C-alpha cells in the first residue's frame, strides 16, 4: 500500500489497486478502462452488485458518508478516486489519512458549492454566468433588481439534472416559489452548512451548450478532449454531438477556457467544464464536474483515448493519452423508458451503433441505464438514424 506522498514524477503502476467512491456507471467505465491496463479496483457503494462493483475485484457495501467504511476501502487500496463530487469533508479526510487521494479535497470543496465554484473561476479571470449569492429573501429581491425578472435560482449544494432549480420569469414566479426557497434555506442550515444556501443567476438566453473534458496529471501535463455540443431535454442530457457544430474560433476558445480552468484549479484527474454559448458567440461557464462526465462518453468509441482511460492515467501520473478524434460521433443517452425499444431493435442495429449498458437492475423512467455512440462519417447521418429508430420518440 502506498502511504508516502508521491513526488511529481512518481507513477502508480499496475497492478496497484484503485478505490472508487461510488459504484455507478462512471465508476464502472473507469474500472473497465483501468482493468485493460492491469489495475485492480475496489468500490464503495450502498447497493450490492452496483454497476461498478460488477466489474471490480470487490465492493464495500456502505453509505457514501460512512467514515469507517471509507477507511476500510482506503486500507485495501493504493489510491482512491471518486465518481461523484458530493463526497463529505469527513470522508475525504478519512481517506487521505491512510491512502493517496490524488485529486485532493480542495477541488471537491469548490465544485460542491455553486457560489464557491463561480467566485473561484471569476477570481481567475474566467468567464462565468453573472450570479449573486442568496442567504435571505432580501438577497432574492436584490438579485431580481439586478437581473430583471428572468433569472434562475439554484440550490448551491446537491442539485443535479435540473433538481433544486427554479426558473423565474416574473414577479408571480417569485411569489410562487418563495416557500420552496425558504424550505431549501432551512434544509441547508439543518444539514449543518453555514455557507450560502442558494444562488441566483442571470438567465442566459443561450444559443447552445458546450462541454470540454480536460485532464491534468501531477507532472502538469494538460490535455483537452474535443468540445461536445450538448442537447438537454427536460434538464437531462439527451445527446452530445462531436465535432460540435460551432465556428472554429468558438471551439478553440472553449478548449482554451477549459485548459485554463484545469491549470487555475490545479486539477489532478479530469474536470468537465460546461459552458453556455451566447448568441454573440461568447462563452460563459455554467458548471464544473471534477470527474468523468456524461458528455464525454463519446470518447469511448471515437477517440484514441477514452475519458476513463485518461482519468486513470492522470490520477496514476502516467503520461496522458492522445485525444485525437478518429470520427464524428453522436452520443445519445438510454434512459429507463428507452431500454425496451432499444433491445427490441438490438439484433438489427447497424455496426456503427455502439451500445453501452450499465447493468442497473431496474429501468426506472429517466434513470440513466446506458448510452449509444453512433460513429459515422457525418453527424447529420447519426441524427437521422436516432430519429428514424423511434427509440427516443418520447424526447
Ligand atoms: P445546471 O444544473 O446548472 O447544469 O443546469 C441545468 C440546465 O438548466 C442547463 O444545462 C441549462 O439548460 C439550464 N440553465 C441553468 N442555468 C441557466 C441560466 N443561468 N440561464 C439559462 N439556462 C440555464
TrEMBL record:
The record's section on PROSITE patterns has: ATP_GRASP
Family the UniProt entry places it in: Belongs to the PurK/PurT family.
What gene makes this protein?
purK
- The residues that the entry says bind ATP are 114, 154, 159-165, 201-204, 209, 232, 286-287
A single GO molecular-function term is: 5-(carboxyamino)imidazole ribonucleotide synthase activity
Q: What name is this protein filed under?
A: N5-carboxyaminoimidazole ribonucleotide synthase
Q: Cite the annotated pathway.
A: Purine metabolism; IMP biosynthesis via de novo pathway; 5-amino-1-(5-phospho-D-ribosyl)imidazole-4-carboxylate from 5-amino-1-(5-phospho-D-ribosyl)imidazole (N5-CAIR route): step 1/2
- Description of how the protein assembles with itself and partners: Homodimer.
Provenance organism: Alicyclobacillus acidocaldarius subsp. acidocaldarius (strain ATCC 27009 / DSM 446 / BCRC 14685 / JCM 5260 / KCTC 1825 / NBRC 15652 / NCIMB 11725 / NRRL B-14509 / 104-IA) (Bacillus acidocaldarius)
Instruction: Using the record's annotation, list all stretches that form the ATP-grasp domain.
Output: 118-316
Keywords for this protein: ATP-binding, Ligase, Nucleotide-binding, Purine biosynthesis
Amino acid at each position: 500500500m502506498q502511504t508516502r506522498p508521491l513526488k511529481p514524477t512518481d507513477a502508480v503502476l499496475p497492478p496497484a489497486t484503485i478505490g472508487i467512491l461510488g459504484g455507478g456507471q462512471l465508476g464502472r467505465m473507469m474500472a473497465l478502462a483501468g482493468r485493460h491496463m492491469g489495475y485492480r479496483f475496489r468500490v464503495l457503494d450502498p447497493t450490492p452488485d452496483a454497476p461498478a462493483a460488477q466489474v471490480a475485484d470487490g465492493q464495500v457495501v456502505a453509505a457514501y458518508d460512512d467514515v469507517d467504511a471509507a477507511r476500510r476501502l482506503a486500507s485495501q487500496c493504493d489510491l482512491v478516486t471518486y465518481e461523484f463530487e458530493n463526497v463529505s469533508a469527513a470522508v475525504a479526510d478519512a481517506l487521505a489519512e491512510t491512502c493517496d487521494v490524488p485529486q485532493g479535497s480542495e477541488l471537491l470543496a469548490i465544485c460542491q458549492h455553486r457560489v464557491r465554484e463561480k467566485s473561484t473561476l471569476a477570481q481567475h479571470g474566467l468567464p462565468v454566468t453573472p450570479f449573486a449569492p442568496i442567504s435571505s429573501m432580501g438577497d432574492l429581491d436584490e438579485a431580481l433588481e439586478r437581473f430583471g425578472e428572468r433569472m434562475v435560482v439554484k440550490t448551491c449544494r446537491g442539485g443535479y439534472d435540473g433538481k433544486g432549480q427554479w426558473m423565474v420569469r416574473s414577479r408571480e414566479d417569485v411569489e410562487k416559489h418563495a416557500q420552496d426557497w425558504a424550505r431549501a434555506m432551512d434544509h441547508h442550515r439543518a444539514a449543518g452548512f453555514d455557507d450560502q444556501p442558494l444562488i441566483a443567476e442571470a438567465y442566459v438566453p443561450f444559443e447552445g451548450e458546450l462541454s470540454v473534458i480536460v485532464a491534468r496529471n501531477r507532472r502538469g501535463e494538460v490535455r483537452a478532449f474535443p468540445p461536445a455540443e450538448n442537447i438537454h431535454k427536460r434538464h437531462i442530457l439527451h445527446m452530445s454531438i462531436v465535432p460540435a457544430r460551432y465556428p472554429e474560433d468558438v471551439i478553440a476558445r472553449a478548449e482554451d477556457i477549459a485548459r485554463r480552468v484545469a491549470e487555475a484549479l490545479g486539477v489532478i484527474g479530469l474536470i468537465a467544464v460546461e459552458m453556455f454559448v451566447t448568441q454573440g458567440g461568447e462563452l460563459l461557464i455554467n458548471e464544473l464536474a471534477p470527474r468523468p462526465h456524461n458528455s464525454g462518453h463519446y470518447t469511448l468509441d471515437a477517440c484514441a483515448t477514452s475519458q476513463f482511460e485518461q482519468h486513470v492515467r492522470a490520477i496514476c501520473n502516467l503520461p496522458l493519452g492522445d485525444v485525437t478524434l478518429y470520427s464524428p460521433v453522436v452520443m445519445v443517452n438510454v434512459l429507463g423508458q428507452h431500454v425496451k425499444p432499444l433491445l427490441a431493435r438490438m439484433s438489427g442495429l447497424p455496426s456503427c451503433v455502439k451500445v453501452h449498458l450499465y447493468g442497473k437492475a431496474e429501468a426506472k423512467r429517466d434513470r440513466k441505464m446506458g448510452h449509444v455512440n453512433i460513429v459515422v462519417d457525418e453527424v447529420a447521418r447519426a441524427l437521422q438514424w436516432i430519429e428514424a429508430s423511434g427509440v427516443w420518440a418520447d424526447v
